[in-house]
Write a structure and sequence with these properties.
The complex is a heterodimer of chains A (476) and B (373). With 476 residues, chain A is an alpha+beta fold. Helices cover 27% and strands 21% of the residues of chain A. With 373 residues, chain B is an alpha+beta fold. Chain B has 13 helices and 16 strands. The chains are: A alpha+beta (476), B alpha+beta (373). Chains A and B meet through strand 4, strand 5, helix 5 and helix 9 of A and helix 1, strand 10, helix 12 and helix 13 of B. Strand 5 of chain A pairs parallel with strand 10 of chain B.
């Protein structure tokens, strides 16, 4: 027996639970045949006016604050349609139907009235309309979507949304055990069914051990658990993947970075890498850490790397220079404003420590602390972020050994530091000892910096760090 | 299976969630009182979301009690630039959150308690909830002069607001939450809830400022704990349940599966700032550079928290027009956020002509622009 309920546009009421069946069986057959002969693409689904339902507390009007859909979008039952506000209450209006939005009756900030149409939805004629309790009793053979469901004579209760989920995943509703009222199939039942098929793990539910046995005579948790653990041989049914590509515009800071990196591409990069033995520096830092702590600063390796770089730049000032746009002039910068690449929520930010050439290692450490706390709070100023002349990037804190850093214009050189690893090395006596090794990767603008300069600078920097005492001789 | 007593509370929560028809109706008869162990505004708002989305409230009501460390909470459809002093908040590390319910802006700290009444949509009734709170207050201190206004505020001494209300209605469930000022920092409250931003035009829900007072000022023996106790007692009596408060941890995924995602969503820029209804800014500022004072006029349209249209009027010849256009072009589509403009502007300088004077002017202009956000 086909039981199919139709409503005409003008007599929809959402509050009352009874509704009128306006078509008899013959009319239904007729419209079904009509559907089969439809050839045009013009919609002949039924347009239903979805009225704004009662908000409660005697409220008669609300303001439309946000539309979640637009005309032409398809919606499913229970999808959010819009957000309305009334007197400090924000209400999410959800769709009662599956269908396509054909008209929005209000613009943003307009007043909408309870009981009046909110949107027009075109319902797919084959699906019919969900009654108040949101359950559709499906006849055995009347729908195309059931050709592969094979209900086998009993009615399977499930909402259209649940049916769609089952259909997307090629699940026969007859094979799913319903745990809802009257053995209705709920969304959780479909998910549980899926999980058993794929051996996937759903969030644990402590009550699973307490729930009364399911109708299919799975007695207790032990049985259910075993079934879930047995990973079945991959079945032929594909799990539908409903992920979609997402396109976003590049804006703001990221757009500016694209411009910077494109400009950097024009610089011919020369790369030079080396390995530094930091064994002595590690010991030195350990010794100095408590002293720095008493002054309120956590001493890392970076201040040493930065100061050593500045000492090197005093000998090789071309690495602290800038090439003009026409490549006609080199400007040797007097200040060593050494940039330190920071990874923040926003992305790669490079604040710089100003005038390292006149700063002590401790002063550099304090300044780094200030920049880091501002950076993580998203409060760095333009002064901290501009005027850099040379950059060091400590990507080693995340990982990696050698990298190929990109020079940040208008600078001409950059160094990237890998992670510090404990590796076996030979000492002067030919014995193996534990060395603290870090890799450095330099990139320089090959238009004005040649390999030999880069190599000599790197060697000098390396010598200061491998033998920290030597820094004392050259400190200003 | 023997249940440990500590699991019992989680268990109660779960059975209500997953089994509408299961034979647990006897246990959860009428009501449940929950209290959060966290003071994080985002976590607590996430719990509200979770209960709203997942709990079946057909056979019971739920009361959720929570307090937060300093935060400003704006209503669903409000404009934070219009409502509070974002600059001051950043300096003082006071968080900004947008809740899902409507209504106006409030300041929370540990001296303020929050109560959320969860019911089915059909049983949504704010006045009843507020009357319950009033009854609890009177039971605690009969001499308190408190009453409920038709705007669902609770006033002390006829004049001072001690509680504000907001609500959220979904398809099947609804919640009504309100604040109660016990011993909050009124000085911070009044300074953060004053917006310094000029020239804003918006259709966002405006807040209605009120004079506030702490209950503590009326009676120094009152504490937040006492108020929570009194309200819980009254609620338990009303719904004929055990006066038992179940503690919940908003970070516990096993009890509240999916809660951490909800917390994260509430913290995203897209939610907090991006949900601001479209607004426009039309303002000006003065800049002092070397020996001259310059007037700059700015007009911007901001939609979804991003600059849709931008117009900056700088005196001619001060900055090369090409550079001005570059700034405007890059600001368009960018977040309306001072950090965004700072990093954007600094990065753009890398590909500009290298001229100290130019750089100084550019930085000055961008800093001032950032002050508008």
């Amino acid at each position: 027996v086909c039981v199919h309920h139709f409503r005409s546009c003008s007599s929809i009421q959402f509050i009352k639970s009874k509704y009128v069946c306006l078509f008899d069986k013959s009319a239904f057959k007729f419209s079904r045949q009509q559907r089969l002969f439809r050839t045009s693409s013009v919609s002949c689904g039924q347009i239903v006016q979805f009225k704004l339902s009662d908000i409660g507390e005697g409220i008669t009007e609300v303001t439309v604050k946000e539309w979640y859909i637009k005309e032409g979008d398809s919606v499913s039952q229970f999808d959010s349609i819009c957000e309305v506000q009334s007197d400090k209450a924000s209400v999410t209006i959800t769709s009662r139907y599956d269908g396509i939005i054909r008209k929005l009756h209000y613009n943003l900030d307009e007043i909408a009235y309870v009981g009046k149409p909110l949107v027009d939805i075109e319902i797919d004629a084959s699906k019919g309309v969900a009654p108040e309790e949101d359950v559709v009793e499906t006849p055995a053979m009347s729908h195309e979507e059931h050709t592969h469901q094979e209900i086998k004579g009993h009615k399977t209760l499930a909402t259209p949304a649940v049916r769609r989920l089952a259909m997307e995943n090629n699940i026969k509703l007859s094979e799913v055990v319903g745990t809802g009222k009257d053995n209705r199939i709920l969304k959780e039942d479909i998910l549980n069914y899926l999980a058993k098929q794929t051996g996937a793990i759903l969030p644990p539910s402590p009550k699973a051990e307490i729930i009364p046995p399911l109708p299919k005579s799975e007695t207790v948790s032990a049985a259910t658990k075993d079934k879930a653990r047995k990973i079945p041989v991959p079945v032929s049914r594909p799990i539908a993947f409903s992920g979609k590509d997402k396109t976003e515009a590049i804006t703001g800071f990221h757009k500016a970075m694209v411009k910077t990196m494109s400009a950097a591409l024009k610089i011919p990069h020369f790369g030079y890498c080396d390995e530094i033995d930091l064994t002595q520096l590690v010991q030195l830092r350990e010794a100095l850490k408590p002293l720095a702590q008493t002054r309120g600063v956590k001493l890392s390796f970076m201040p040493f790397f930065i100061k050593a770089a500045s000492l090197g730049l005093l000998q090789y000032p071309i690495l602290n220079a800038s090439l003009d746009e026409s490549c006609q002039n080199i400007t040797y910068k007097a200040s060593h404003n050494i940039g330190v690449a920071m990874d923040t929520e926003q992305g790669l930010i490079v604040p710089n420590v100003k005038n390292v050439q006149v700063c002590s290692v401790f002063e550099i450490a304090s300044e780094l602390k200030r920049l880091q706390s501002l950076g993580s709070a998203g409060q760095l100023g333009t002064n901290d972020l501009t005027g850099g002349t040379f950059t060091l990037s400590n990507v080693g804190t995340i990982g990696g050994t050698y990298t190929k850093p990109v020079i940040l214009p208008p600078e001409v050189a950059i160094g990237a530091l890998g992670k510090i690893q404990v590796l076996p090395r030979f000492n002067g006596k030919g014995e193996v000892f534990k060395a603290q090794i870090m890799n450095v990767s330099w990139s320089a603008d090959h238009r004005i910096i040649d390999g030999a300069t880069m190599a000599r600078f790197s060697n000098l920097w390396k010598s200061y760090l491998e033998n920290p005492a030597s820094m004392l001789l050259d400190l200003k | 299976m023997v249940l440990q007593s500590s699991l019992k509370n989680c268990f109660q929560l779960f059975c209500v969630l997953r089994t509408p028809k299961a034979g647990f109706k006897g246990t959860s008869n009428g009501g449940l009182i929950l209290q959060s162990v966290s003071n994080d505004i985002y976590q607590n708002l996430a719990v509200e979301d979770w209960i709203h989305d997942h709990m079946n409230l057909e056979n019971q009501h739920v009361l959720f009690l929570w307090r937060n460390s300093p935060a400003v909470v704006i209503g669903r459809h409000q404009n934070p630039w219009q409502e509070c002093n974002l600059k001051l908040m950043r300096q003082k590390s006071i968080k900004l959150a947008r809740r899902r319910s409507g209504g106006g802006t409030v300041y929370h700290d540990l001296g303020n308690i929050n109560l959320t009444f969860f019911t089915t949509r059909k049983k949504y009734e704010r006045m009843e909830n507020l009357k319950l709170v009033l009854k609890a207050l009177k039971a605690l201190r009969p001499q308190l002069d408190v009453h409920i206004t038709d705007r669902y505020d609770i006033l002390l001494d006829r004049h001072y607001k001690i509680s504000g209300t907001a609500a959220k209605l979904g398809r099947t469930t609804a919640y009504h939450h309100c604040t109660l000022l016990c011993n909050a920092d009124k000085f911070v409250l009044s300074s953060v809830l004053k917006s310094p931003y000029k020239g804003l035009k918006s259709n966002a829900t405006p807040s209605v400022p009120s004079s506030v007072k702490n209950l503590f000022e009326e009676d120094p023996t009152l504490t937040c704990e006492m108020l929570l106790e009194a309200i819980a007692t009254e609620y338990a009596m009303r719904h004929q349940i055990d006066h038992h408060i179940t503690l919940i941890n908003p970070a516990d995924e096993t009890v509240l599966p999916g809660i951490n995602n909800k917390t994260k969503e509430l913290q995203t820029w897209e939610w907090v700032y991006g949900k601001t209804p479209k607004f426009s800014i039309s303002t000006y500022f003065n800049m002092v550079y070397k020996d001259s004072v310059l007037d700059v006029k700015v007009d911007m349209d901001v939609k979804h928290g991003r600059i849709e249209v931008c117009n900056i009027d700088v005196p001619e010849q001060w900055l090369p027009p090409a550079l001005c256009n570059e700034l405007v072009k890059n600001l368009t589509g960018s977040k309306f956020c001072p950090n965004e403009i700072t990093t954007l502007a600094s990065t753009l300088l890398r590909t500009c002509p290298q001229d100290d004077d130019l750089h100084n002017k550019w930085n000055l202009l961008c800093e001032n622009m950032g002050m508008l956000m």
